[in-house]
Task: inverse folding
């Protein structure tokens, strides 16, 4: 490794613009003639639209146009799509209702967009929006999954009887029943995974510009995957053909999944720009973000785990009800199925597993993938079950896990996945050592002497990243392939541009992707530029989510670098009159091995472009592209241990120590990887202790719609973290990378809840474990 | 419309605003200083933190008209002579930012914390004082490290001045 190569904690190239206020986010964009949009949104969770009267609003100063769903339909703008087909156990396709970008007849959640107001200023648009008089006829409301499935529940979409979208199964039901019939012990739990609001700090925004002269559209948007946005807006929403539509995702202020989806607002802004003849910018305020950004989690689960007399797991049965909200968002069907139930084997040998997932419509904000997407829900089920089993069986939690660890690879689970590699015990040992697990008893005694209750809890997670092999996900219902693309352009002076379909919204790609090139060619990272986020510059890509940019995006770059290297060596061999096989590339030079003959990198590049003396038949130039389709998922895994102290008088939990031991395979930049873990842990601890999204069950009003009501983790809610890495390189991709972006959020919630329940001596505690809940659990125990 | 005038990053500026225009919108839209961000609508997130007359203020919580005659410093105004402010340098050095959206407000709030506490700062104080600034990316771990590191550097610079 060079000082800027693979494995070096190189400081980030992109930082300077952010720390000096020169980042360029969507809301910072200004184009000539730009006007401002505000959406009129439903204040009701379920209602018929009787009439929309815009006369008063249209008379307001500065108003340019007010458009509604009827006009959108007239112009042939399509329904929002769900990109993954899931079939019920009876073979029938999922029962998907229509989602119009602007509701035309019925609104189904508070915040459903009804109309767009375009005006000279944002304030004028807001004033006018307040005067759009929408007459509603209220309909009965349902917000929870059990109520939504009940006979006589309000019917949200005509296509989904009893609000059931699908009733899906995975695994062998008979084999699982047989395993349970032989069980010596069965552990049963009801587990709720609380609904969360992603809350990227940059609110969503869109700027739609229609150029009538060219009949061309440009959309700046807060997207994790601008190419997918262009594809979907073109192929399904009929905004414009792909060659007439440019999508740019400039600096994006965090995503966490919530900026994967193509929302109504960007479609409507583009369409409104053509309708009104002006560029239209919309910027979400935070309340609007709470109401309309896709939410995460929201599972209600019953699980049973069967053990033999020797405490080996025999089988697992899981029944989950997943709240998908009022409409099916882009990946909403995949999240509680193929990203959830396929991870229910955890780190353990489990001979038989059966999972049943019911997806359900409710009058709430659509729910989709949020940091971890299905894997946090699976990990929470597995690791709450394992800890509870250990308590019920009277064995130590780490020993029960050790006894059941998968130790030989590849390992085929009963739920599709083939784990390629791992060393679960190494992470468990590292975490136990880091937190001084053996010394816990004395620390607990010390807490008790002060009247406090101390607890320790662990979580051994595994997840699937590097999504995903295209043919495999296609066979499971995905509407797209999940490969990635890259192009490497070596300029005539030897500097290099990497064009990637991955998108960085905090992950540091401008640094880590450049490190790959530094490692390969020995050139400085300052001579490497990363180009991303613009469909006019990068031909196609699938974007960043599912911790895929390293394992998939960088693998595409490696493939393109292979081609560049091969051509560069041919040129160098020709110029130095050597054998191509003898050329090595080191420290920015091409050398003939075993001689003192060298050719600087830039001279080779210049030769490629002057083309005065190239090998016979070789094309001039040095530019290579590649598409990389992974052969398998990758499987990051690790062990997290949390130690807490609970004040029995107030129920307040303090995290005294939190250790993370992760196996992410090979690591490009440890500093950035650790930063990803810190952020993930904060979100997972936030879910466990603080964050919870609440709807009023009678009215469907979102009660937690601001930072006054929804508790975001603050600096003084969190400890500093101890992090270590154990490495089993991933055999499935050229860099041996597994991915690190979501692990913290996946692994941490059960560690926290296991620690608190250990402290208070009762198992009945739901997230977020607020002081009130902890106090009640303690005093009801 | 009302005319407002103030000093921003050492330069005298003025503009026409509505009475209801927030200072943050005046900075972003009238002056084009887009480094100051808006992350919420309830004065909770701190992405809009600037300095007014030497104190950290949330620019979404004050009207532009109220800033009449004041001395404003934004994230664009803290590097001097092409040299980063020690707090900016510390955020980079300690990887105290990821997506960068909360970063300008974090840096402005952190400078104010160090101005008030000097090098007496400890981790607990930094964490407590940063509770008005929300970051969703970093888990605060490296932000806290950066602020503590900068506390020493900032104090040295002030002593030298």
Result:
């Amino acid at each position: 490794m060079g000082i800027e190569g693979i494995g070096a904690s190189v400081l980030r190239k992109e930082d300077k613009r952010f720390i000096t206020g020169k980042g360029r986010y969507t809301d910072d964009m200004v184009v000539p003639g730009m006007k401002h949009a505000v959406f009129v949104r439903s204040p009701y969770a379920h209602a018929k639209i009787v009439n929309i009267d815009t006369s008063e609003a249209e008379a307001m100063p500065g108003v340019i146009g007010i458009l509604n769903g009827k006009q959108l339909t007239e112009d042939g703008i399509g329904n929002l799509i769900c990109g993954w087909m899931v079939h019920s156990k009876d073979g029938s396709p999922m029962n998907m209702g229509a989602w119009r970008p602007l509701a035309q007849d019925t609104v189904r959640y508070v915040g459903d967009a009804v109309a767009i107001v375009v005006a000279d200023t944002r304030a004028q648009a807001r004033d006018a929006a307040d005067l759009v008089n929408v007459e509603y006829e209220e309909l009965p409301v349902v917000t929870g999954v059990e109520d939504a499935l009940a006979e006589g529940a309000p019917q949200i979409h005509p296509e989904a009887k009893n609000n059931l979208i699908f009733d899906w199964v995975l695994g062998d039901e008979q084999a699982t029943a047989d395993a349970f019939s032989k069980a010596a012990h069965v552990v049963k739990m009801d587990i709720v995974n609380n609904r969360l609001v992603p809350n990227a700090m940059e609110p969503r925004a869109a700027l739609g510009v229609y150029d009538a002269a060219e009949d061309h559209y440009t959309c700046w948007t807060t997207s994790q995957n601008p190419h997918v946005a262009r594809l979907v807006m073109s192929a399904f929403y009929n905004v414009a053909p792909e060659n007439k539509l440019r999508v740019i995702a400039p600096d994006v202020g965090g995503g966490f999944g919530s900026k994967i989806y193509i929302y109504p607002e960007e479609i409507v802004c583009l369409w409104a720009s053509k309708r009104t003849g002006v560029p239209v910018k919309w910027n979400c305020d935070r309340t609007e973000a709470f109401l309309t950004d896709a939410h995460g989690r929201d599972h209600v689960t019953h699980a049973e785990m069967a053990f033999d007399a020797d405490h080996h797991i025999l089988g697992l049965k899981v029944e989950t009800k997943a709240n998908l909200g009022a409409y099916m968002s882009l990946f909403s069907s995949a999240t509680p199925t193929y990203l959830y139930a396929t991870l229910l084997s955890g780190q353990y040998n489990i001979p038989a597993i059966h999972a049943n997932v019911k997806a359900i419509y409710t009058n709430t904000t659509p729910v989709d993938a949020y940091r971890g997407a299905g894997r946090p829900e699976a990990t929470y089920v597995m690791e709450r079950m394992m800890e509870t089993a250990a308590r019920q069986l009277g064995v130590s939690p780490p020993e029960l896990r050790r006894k059941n660890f998968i130790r030989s690879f590849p390992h085929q689970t009963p739920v599709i996945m083939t784990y390629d590699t791992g060393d679960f015990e190494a992470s468990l040992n590292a975490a136990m050592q880091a937190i001084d697990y053996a010394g816990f008893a004395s620390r607990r005694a010390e807490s008790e002497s002060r009247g406090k209750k101390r607890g320790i809890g662990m979580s051994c997670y595994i997840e699937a990243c590097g999504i995903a092999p295209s043919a495999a996900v296609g066979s499971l219902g995905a509407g797209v392939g999940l490969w990635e693309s890259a192009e490497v352009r070596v300029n005539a002076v030897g500097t290099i541009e990497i064009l990637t379909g991955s998108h960085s919204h905090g992950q540091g790609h401008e640094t880590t992707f450049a490190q790959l090139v530094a490692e390969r060619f020995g050139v400085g990272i300052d001579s490497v530029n990363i180009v991303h986020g613009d469909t006019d510059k990068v031909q196609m890509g699938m974007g960043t989510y599912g911790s895929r940019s390293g394992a998939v995006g960088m693998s595409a770059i490696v493939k393109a670098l292979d081609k560049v290297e091969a051509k560069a060596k041919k040129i160098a061999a020709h110029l130095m009159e050597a054998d191509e096989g003898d050329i090595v590339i080191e420290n920015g030079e091409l050398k003939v091995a075993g001689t003192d003959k060298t050719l600087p990198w830039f001279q080779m590049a210049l030769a490629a472009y002057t083309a005065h003396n190239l090998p016979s038949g070789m094309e001039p130039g040095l530019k290579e592209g590649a598409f990389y389709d992974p052969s398998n998922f990758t499987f990051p895994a690790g062990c997290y241990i949390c130690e807490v102290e609970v004040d029995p008088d107030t129920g307040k939990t303090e995290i005294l120590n939190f250790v993370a031991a992760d196996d992410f395979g090979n690591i490009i930049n440890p500093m950035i990887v650790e930063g990803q873990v810190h952020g993930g842990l904060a979100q997972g601890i936030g879910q466990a202790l603080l964050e919870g999204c609440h709807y009023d069950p009678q009215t469907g009003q979102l009660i937690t719609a601001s930072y006054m009501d929804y508790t975001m983790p603050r600096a003084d809610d969190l400890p500093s973290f101890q992090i270590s890495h154990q490495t089993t390189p991933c055999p499935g991709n050229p860099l041996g990378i597994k991915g690190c972006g979501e692990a913290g959020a996946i692994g941490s919630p059960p560690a926290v809840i296991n620690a608190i329940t250990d402290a208070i001596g009762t198992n009945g505690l739901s997230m977020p474990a607020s002081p009130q809940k902890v106090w009640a659990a303690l005093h009801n125990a | 419309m009302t005319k407002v005038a103030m000093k921003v990053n050492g330069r005298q500026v003025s503009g026409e605003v509505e009475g209801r225009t927030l200072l943050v919108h005046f900075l972003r839209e009238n002056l084009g200083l887009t480094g100051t961000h808006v992350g919420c609508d309830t004065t909770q997130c701190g992405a809009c933190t600037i300095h007014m007359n030497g104190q950290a203020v949330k620019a979404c919580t004050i009207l532009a008209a109220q800033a009449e005659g004041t001395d404003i410093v934004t994230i664009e105004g803290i590097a001097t002579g092409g040299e980063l402010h020690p707090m900016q340098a510390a955020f980079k050095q300690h990887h105290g930012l990821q997506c960068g959206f909360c970063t300008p407000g974090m840096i402005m709030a952190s400078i104010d914390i160090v101005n008030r506490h000097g090098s007496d700062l400890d981790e607990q104080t930094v964490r407590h004082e940063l509770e008005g600034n929300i970051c969703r990316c970093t888990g605060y771990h490296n932000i806290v490290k950066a602020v503590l590191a900068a506390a020493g550097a900032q104090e040295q610079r002030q002593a030298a001045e």
